[in-house]
Design a protein that fits this description.
By secondary structure, the chain is α/β, with parallel strands linked by helices. The chain is built from 21 helices and 16 strands. The radius of gyration is 21 Å and the shape is globular. The mean pLDDT is about 95.
């Protein structure tokens, strides 16, 4: 069955999967969603014997129906290869208290964004060929820390593409920043902004919706696309690892076929937990989706009250990839909650844009029954890192710690002992200072790379190649601008005007 895509704010017009991936964002400002969610129509027991690559094909072929089997398998083979440091791609780690951490950080940039951004460039260049695109594709991306590096690593020196990444200059960890500003590639550009992630993301969305700018680009032989999780080509590959995790639990005998699992996700932009929700809609036996926020708890408040309110202080935390007040992917869930009423969805999004908030109806709130939301303070996040290390000898990063701590709150609130998979979204090596400070106070005063060595000594885990490479790498990108200067910066990079 062919799956087409429509906009959350559109009039019902449809495009193919490859067209949706190429465009990234719909021309009306909405996000592309499948007209219907396909079923995972293979026997669940078969998942137990599938490799990651085989699972990826079964899931993605249901969504990306205008890609041929050969095209899709080629994209998957090129994405999930030796750039990952484990053959499993996304291994499950069981701790002493029976929690399963789904390690999504074994790719080139040691964060979960690699899982989708390893394949997106191949999906996109294949889509360009399929649709006869002659323009050079300009990937325009805002990052809260991890997407930028993962996207650049994926798109570096890919013919027919350029990638421009904007990040909050004072809103990422030192390791995250060093990873970005040392990125090689003749087609990669990294720009710091003096605002926060929401400022960068809003400016990027505005450029996508600027028809005059699109005309300028077209005249110069360029067109925008996105590597952010607003691109359906990012979201679909993320569904894969939840299906794969279920197969791993079956294979190890931890669950029986058809048993339900809970999934806990540290959440900022809502894409990663939305992928788990889509997996459930496909038929994966999922009970509850546990949405974990840090002190920027706009999502927790939304699940509690039905009001999404971004009018609050923006807090810089030790889990910077979650320091987000406008969760773009939530729009896809809101669209579903409206009964796929694009005009109602558009109205809510416009209210958020103009007034900073919207409130859903009681009927829509009933559709949130699959989700549980909670948050962790900075102190609680430190405690979760410490408790996991001293309780299980397992070291987790601050984002994963938020998920682990919120899961403990869920247990206390519900007494629900359904087996849980926690999305472990980044290597602790990416946030060494926060991790080591939580483990002991004897590491104070060490620089970031001394902390890297201390973490390796503590865990016995070798320093990842992604970190070792940047230890002495030269800074190649040092541009910093105000958010209002982003469009002119893009024009300057592309040589337009």
């Amino acid at each position: 069955m062919q799956i087409l895509y429509k906009s959350t704010r559109g009039n019902g017009e449809t495009v193919t999967a490859s067209q949706a991936i190429l465009k990234g964002l719909s021309g009306d400002g909405g996000l592309f969603v499948p007209v219907s969610i396909p079923k995972l129509d293979i026997p669940l027991e078969k998942l137990a014997d599938m490799t990651y690559q085989e699972t990826a094909y079964e899931v993605m072929s249901r969504f990306l129906t205008d890609y041929t089997e050969e095209e899709l398998k080629n994209c998957i083979a090129r994405a999930y290869d030796s750039k990952f440091d484990t053959e499993e791609i996304a291994p499950l780690h069981k701790t002493a208290d029976g929690v399963y951490f789904l390690e999504l950080f074994h790719g080139a940039t040691i964060a979960f964004k690699d899982m989708a951004l390893s394949i997106l460039p191949h999906l996109m260049t294949t889509a360009a060929k399929k649709n006869g695109v002659k323009n050079e594709i300009v990937i325009l991306t805002a990052t809260s820390g991890d997407t930028g590096k993962a996207a650049m690593a994926g798109f570096a020196d890919v013919p027919g593409t350029k990638i421009i990444v904007f990040y909050p200059k004072h809103g990422v960890s030192p390791i995250q920043e060093k990873q970005m500003v040392t990125q090689k590639g003749n087609n990669t550009y990294v720009v710091g902004i003096t605002g926060n992630f929401d400022d960068a993301q809003s400016a990027v969305k505005k450029m996508f919706n600027d028809q005059a700018m699109a005309d300028e680009l077209q005249e110069a032989g360029y067109q925008f696309s996105s590597a952010n999780s607003i691109n359906i080509g990012r979201l679909v590959p993320q569904i894969v690892y939840y299906v794969y995790a279920y197969g791993r639990l079956l294979k190890s005998g931890e669950i029986n076929c058809g048993d339900k699992i809970n999934i806990t996700v540290p959440t900022g932009n809502f894409g990663n937990i939305l992928a788990a929700y889509y997996a459930k809609l496909m038929g994966l036996p999922v009970n509850r989706l546990i949405c974990a926020s840090n002190e920027n708890k706009v999502l927790f408040d939304f699940f509690r009250t039905g009001t999404y309110d971004r009018k609050r202080d923006f807090i810089l935390t030790s889990s910077p990839s979650m320091d987000i007040l406008i969760s773009s992917n939530l729009e896809r869930l809101i669209y579903r909650l409206t009964g796929e009423d694009s005009q109602k969805c558009r109205g809510l999004m416009e209210a958020l844009s103009s007034g900073g908030e919207y409130t859903i109806t009681e009927e829509m709130k009933e559709g949130l029954a699959d989700f549980y939301g909670n948050f962790l303070s900075e102190g609680e996040t430190r405690e979760a890192i410490s408790a996991t290390y001293y309780g299980s000898g397992y070291v987790i990063d601050p984002h994963t710690a938020v998920a682990a701590g919120v899961y403990q709150k869920y247990l206390r609130d519900t007494k629900d002992r359904t087996p849980v998979v926690i999305a472990s979204t980044a290597s602790p090596y990416k946030f060494t200072r926060s991790v080591m400070d939580a483990v002991s106070d004897r590491y104070e005063g060490l620089d970031d790379f001394a902390l890297v060595d201390a973490l390796s000594a503590l865990t016995g885990i070798p320093v990842p190649r992604a970190v070792e490479e940047i230890r002495t790498a030269p800074v190649l990108h040092d541009t910093v601008v105000d958010a209002g200067e982003m469009p002119e910066t893009v024009r300057k990079i592309l040589g337009i005007r």
